[in-house]
Amino acid sequence: MATKQSTKTGSAARASAKVWTEEERAAMQESARERKAASRRGSADERVEGERDVQAKIAEMPVAERVMAERIHALVGSAAPSLVPRTYYGMPAYARDGKVICFFQAASKFKVRYSTFGFQPDARIDDGEMWPVAFAVTELTAGVEARLAELVKKAAG
Question: pTM for this one?
Fold first, then answer.
């Protein structure tokens, strides 16, 4: 029985190998480092080291995104102090029982149009049969902050 040979050659084969963007590959590598570091931490170190990691990631952001991330970090800490800061694919995130509940993704992270604040499946933001799990954030107004605080409180349960 004959086997089918690939007809892809040259640049076509190389193009199909580029499934992930450089930013996505970097995020996956960061996630692997985060998981390795987390496996070595004791529960007593989790909050302190997570806070340090989140602050370091925020410090790397461009100024406008850094200001937004700092405000969101303070907002999450105030709205849901039980959530533990940590990084998630190199982004500031907040976890309960080791599972990420919500995270901030700066626009520069994946070179997109706007930053987002997102929720993972363990967040308790259910609202009927359908609800958003990520929100575009272009500016942190008082209304946006109030809405995010409300969602974070609900997500933290």
Answer: 0.79
The string of pLDDT tens digits covering residues 8-34 is 555 554 555 688 888 888 878 887 887
3-class SS of residue 86: strand
At 87 the three-state DSSP class reads: strand
Phi-psi region for residue 103, left (φ > 0), alpha (ψ -120 to 50) or beta?
Answer: beta
Q: Order of strands across the sheet with 115-119?
A: 84-88, 91-96, 99-105, 115-119, 134-137
CATH topology of domain 22-156: Aspartate Aminotransferase, domain 1 (3.90.1150)
Helix, strand, coil abundance in the chain, percent, nearest 5: 50, 15, 30
pLDDT digits 0-9 by tens, 36-51: 777 776 677 889 999 9
In angstroms, the CA 95 to CA 135 distance is 18
Rg (CA), the chain: 19
